[in-house]
Specification:
Layout: E1 5-13, E2 19-28, E3 33-37, H1 44-51, E4 59-64, E5 67-68, H2 73-78, E6 80-83, H3 95-105, H4 112-121, H5 137-149, E7 155-159, H6 167-182, E8 186-190, H7 194-200, E9 203-208, E10 211-217, H8 218-225, E11 227-234, E12 251-252, E13 258-264, H9 272-281, E14 286-293, H10 296-309
Parallel strand pairs: 3-8, 3-9, 6-7, 7-8
Antiparallel strand pairs: 1-2, 1-4, 4-5, 9-10, 11-13, 11-14, 12-13
Helix pairs in contact: 3-5
Length: 310
């Protein structure tokens, strides 16, 4: 099946000579949640704006649902919902009218039943007659999402949707994203909250300095690049790692009775069995052993730092 969004050789160079996107190619499958991660200035918003037809590319091609975003702009744009970073709403308009107006902009016939479903899904129905100026920042962000969904798009772009939102509301929005996916909506999410991508994304794309560093399934990425650590708690504190264990590259933990062993899960031999045997041979008594996987944040930071060094 053809991807719902196809980006090929996309370049964006500004008049100043700054290259915001450098030969970016990316396919996004129907019904998936793709998290686009990158530091400030990496090109995330430029990429989204170009796919949505807001920014004109210097080179390359973008299609949405098979429609070229330049040659067939209207057909492509009708398939897209966009939730921007900035909250830019008419402050004195009522919530329902704000969302209804957005639907009309896309030439869709009036459908108050659909708008009611959207507002209820976002816990906004009881605010439908409230003026935007009366809403909290989190509720205003929900209105932005409602506007983006008003014309029933197949693809939804969320550009930092939970910036400045409290933890409880953020989790509510995650649940909304999951429901939208279940209904077949393709979602592209940019975020600074790595736990957001870790919680809801199917695939991760990392962008830095206008280049896509990788696009990979989240679970596979964490298996491939994630390190695992074994935290070994001892019965008694030690001053330093015994000489007999030095070849294992052990580190002492924050407490004097803890050793930390880092290993690659992809290696055929992790060395764990040998290490535990040698710890006992060195006369150290174990109290507990725990393991933990690298988080997506640690993987992301490592990738970006590697790119910067390169």
């Amino acid at each position: 099946m053809a991807p719902v969004v196809s980006v090929t050789g996309l370049v964006k160079t500004y008049a100043s000579g700054f290259v915001a996107l450098n030969d970016v190619s990316l396919n996004i499958e129907e019904g998936e949640i793709l998290a686009l991660l990158g530091p400030n200035g990496a090109g995330k918003t430029t990429l989204i704006s170009t796919i949505c037809g807001i920014t004109t590319p210097s080179a390359g091609r973008v299609s949405v649902g098979g429609h070229d975003t330049i040659r067939d702009y209207r057909a492509a744009r009708k398939l897209i919902g966009l939730v921007p970073q900035e909250i830019n709403l008419e402050p004195f308009e009522k919530v329902l009218n704000t969302v209804r107006f957005s639907r009309g902009l896309f030439g869709k016939p009036r459908d108050d039943a659909h708008l009611e479903r959207v507002l209820r899904q976002l816990s906004l129905w009881d605010k439908k007659d409230a003026k935007v100026i009366e809403l909290s920042g989190g509720m205003k962000r929900r209105v932005l999402i409602a506007k983006a969904l008003s014309h029933e798009p197949r693809v939804l772009f969320l550009d930092e949707p939970t910036a400045g939102v409290d933890v409880e509301l953020r989790k509510d929005l995650w649940e909304t994203v999951r429901r939208l996916k279940a209904e077949g909506v393709t979602i592209i999410l940019t975020t600074h909250y790595i736990e957001e991508a870790e919680a809801i994304a199917d695939r991760i794309a990392v962008i830095s300095k206008g280049d896509i560093l990788l696009v990979e399934e989240k679970a596979a990425l964490m298996r491939r690049l994630g390190r695992k650590q074994m935290v070994i708690e001892l019965q008694a504190p030690i001053d330093a790692v015994p000489e007999a264990l030095a070849h294992h590259a052990l580190e002492t933990g924050p407490d004097a009775d803890t050793l930390i062993y880092t290993y690659d899960t992809q290696r055929e031999r992790t060395g764990i069995t040998r290490l535990l045997n040698e710890i006992q041979a060195a006369g150290l008594q174990l109290r507990d052993v725990q393991t933990r996987q690298s988080s997506l944040e640690e993987i992301f930071v490592g990738l970006v730092q590697e790119e910067e060094r390169g």
